Amino acid sequence: MLRIPLHLVLGTTLALLLPGAVLAHGTEDHSHAATSDPGYAASSTGTRSLTLGPVSIKMLAETANLGRGDVEVGELILPVGSGESVPHQHGSLEMFYVVEGVLGHEVNGTPNRLEPGDLGIVRPGDTVKHAVLSDVPVKAVVIWVPGGEANRLIEHAGFVATPLGGAAAE
Asked: 6-163 belongs to which CATH class?
């Protein structure tokens, strides 16, 4: 299984998606300075929490604090005993970076075991389901490209949104 350090996953993903970001070698493009975009926040403790039963996703980056909707980043917590998710699809590329626990990650009928340091990838239209395979909760960073999946989880899957103190949610 592929193990990629989180800073490389996030750095590479954001560098590809966000023109003007600081590059790995330190070259900066200041054409998109924070002061020119009132919707942009340079750090986040979360904008809102999405919950469905015992499952929670703390939205860390989305339109509310990025000022743009081309990417969303959340912290997913799947408790032990939360059961297997129903098979589902997303309209966005979905990436899971497992931080703690072991995630069962079945994509198009093929089971995968994601351990800390592993990255799971789901293309738009793939059928996926998830389950906790460890005796500790799964904590993962989930990235959706483009964004909009958080609102689709609320509208179509029954997740409930609760605002957090980080930034106003849409």
From this structure: mainly beta
